[in-house]
């Protein structure tokens, strides 16, 4: 049953710890939109950064036109976690902000229960890629406008229209610096995921 | 030590045996409370030789068998054999086995040991085959299930608004 089968002798077996079930959510959005801030506001650990080597298609980049079509790039990805109980742990992964890192998104997003797309109303363009991505992947997601300085430049209706967000996709305003606000934004995503699971059952 | 030096179990031909889905959190030995493992320096990954330690391999052989990559949240746990054989391991393999006495995700190991994600994937698969690490790939059918989602929602709701006086003073 377990990989440690040959070692189920006496006290030794008790030393093998059973890990928690990891549940993953993704925090997406453009560069500098507050993804790492949001993760840091609610994570029980300081957000960790890992650098992952990814392969990206270099088509259209003149300088690389004489090289093979792929090149390896290193991207930084921030993440944090919340221990729900000893058997269950929620991981929050921030996607690298740039659109061209679609490959890396797949690597991070595989298996995620849902995603929160953070929007800065001063730079709406930056989150198109994320909204498109999760719509196409069929991953439950909600859009949350990060209210920098407590102010939002556009109304929710304007943002919904501008981003062409489907009616069923939750849209709200939150503050990435406030733990309770981040918690509530994540809950919207989880409740959407739960509703979808129950609807499918 | 002499007894513990016995060779690791036969490489398991069944790829699923080592990739035990964490499907039943209610059973098994009492897990260690979710405390953060001892602090390990966090910083940029080495740009010099990210894949040297994997002998140039960029994807775990287990990936080819299972047809999918280990998700970044896949949990790694040191086995008793891994702990017993710690002295015979070196460099990154030793670091991983030592760190995973506390269960950790592939992403956490990559960050804490400053290794690329795919290097950790390759080494984790090696160590699993050698019986030194157990690799728990989460079962999406379980993590996406209503009961798990409800538990996560309840757990999140219990988190208070404020962390205390240290936040948002700027």
Give an overview of the whole structure:
The complex is a heterodimer of chains A (201) and B (170). Chain A has helices at 10-14, 35-42, 102-109, 128-137, 156-163, 179-200; strands at residues 21-29, 48-57, 70-85, 88-94, 114-119, 141-146, 171-174. With 201 residues, chain A is of the alpha/beta class. Chain A has one domain (20-49, 81-200): Rossmann fold. Chain A has a 7-stranded mixed beta sheet, sandwiched between helices. In chain A, strand 3 and strand 4 (88-94) form a beta hairpin. Chain A is globular. Chain A starts with 9 loop residues before the first helix and ends with a helix. The relative contact order of chain A is 0.17. Chain B is mainly alpha-helical and 170 residues long. Chain B has a domain at 61-148. Chain B has a 3-stranded antiparallel beta sheet with strand order 2-1-3. The radius of gyration of chain B is 18 Å and the shape is elongated. The chains are: A alpha/beta (201), B mainly alpha (170). At the A-B interface, helix 1, strand 1, strand 2, strand 3 and strand 4 of A face strand 1, helix 3, helix 5, helix 6 and strand 3 of B.
Helical run tally of chain B? 8
The fraction of residues in strands of chain A falls at 25-35%
Oligomer: heterodimer
**What is the tally of beta strands of chain B?**
3
Range of helix content of chain A: 25-40%
CATH architectural group of chain A = 3-Layer(aba) Sandwich
The CATH C-level name of chain A is Alpha Beta
What count of domains describes the coordinates of chain A?
1
Unreliable segments of 5+ consecutive residues of chain A:
1-14, 58-68
| Structural class by sheet pairing and helices of chain A | alpha/beta
Write the layout of secondary structure elements.
The complex is a heterodimer of chains A (201) and B (170).
Chain A: H1 10-14, E1 21-29, H2 35-42, E2 48-57, E3 70-85, E4 88-94, H3 102-109, E5 114-119, H4 128-137, E6 141-146, H5 156-163, E7 171-174, H6 179-200
Parallel strand pairs in A: 1-4, 1-5, 5-6, 6-7
Antiparallel strand pairs in A: 2-3, 3-4
Chain B: H1 15-18, H2 61-66, E1 75-78, H3 80-84, H4 91-99, E2 104-105, H5 106-113, H6 117-129, E3 133-136, H7 140-143, H8 146-157
Antiparallel strand pairs in B: 1-2, 1-3
Biased composition (Low complexity) (chain B): 18-27
InterPro entries (chain B): DUF742
Biased composition (Pro residues) (chain B): 1-10, 28-42
């Amino acid at each position: 049953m377990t990989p440690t089968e040959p070692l189920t002798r006496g006290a030794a077996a008790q030393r093998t710890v059973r890990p928690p079930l990891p549940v993953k959510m993704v925090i997406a959005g453009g560069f500098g939109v507050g993804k790492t801030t949001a993760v840091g506001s609610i994570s029980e650990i300081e957000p960790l950064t890992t650098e992952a080597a990814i392969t990206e298609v270099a088509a259209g980049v003149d300088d690389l036109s004489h090289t093979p079509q792929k090149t390896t790039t290193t991207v930084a990805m921030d993440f944090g976690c919340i221990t729900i109980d000893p058997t269950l742990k929620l991981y929050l992964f921030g996607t690298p902000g740039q659109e061209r890192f679609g490959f890396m998104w797949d690597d991070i997003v595989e298996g995620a229960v849902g995603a929160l797309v953070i929007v800065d109303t001063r730079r709406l363009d930056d989150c198109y890629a994320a909204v498109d991505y999760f719509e196409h992947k069929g991953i439950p997601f909600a859009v949350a406008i990060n209210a920098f300085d407590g102010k939002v430049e556009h109304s929710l209706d304007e943002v919904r229209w501008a981003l062409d967000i489907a009616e069923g996709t939750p849209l709200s305003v939150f503050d990435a610096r406030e733990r309770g606000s981040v918690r509530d934004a994540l809950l919207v995503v989880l409740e959407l995921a739960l509703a979808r699971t129950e609807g499918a059952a | 030590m002499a007894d513990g030096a016995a060779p690791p179990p036969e490489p398991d031909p069944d790829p699923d045996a080592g990739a035990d889905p964490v499907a039943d959190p209610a059973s098994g030995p009492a897990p260690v409370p979710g405390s953060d493992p001892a602090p390990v320096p966090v910083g940029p990954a080495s740009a010099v030789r990210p894949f040297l330690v994997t002998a140039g391999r960029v994807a775990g052989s287990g990936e080819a068998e299972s047809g999918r990559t280990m998700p970044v949240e896949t949990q790694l746990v040191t086995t008793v054999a891994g702990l017993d054989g710690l002295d015979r391991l070196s460099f990154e393999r030793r670091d991983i086995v030592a760190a995973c006495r506390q269960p950790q995700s592939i992403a956490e190991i990559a960050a804490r040991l400053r290794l690329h994600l795919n290097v950790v994937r390759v080494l984790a698969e090696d160590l699993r085959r050698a019986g030194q690490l157990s690799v728990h790939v989460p079962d999406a059918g379980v993590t996406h299930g209503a009961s798990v989602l409800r538990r996560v929602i309840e757990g999140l709701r219990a988190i208070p608004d404020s962390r205390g006086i240290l936040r948002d003073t700027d």
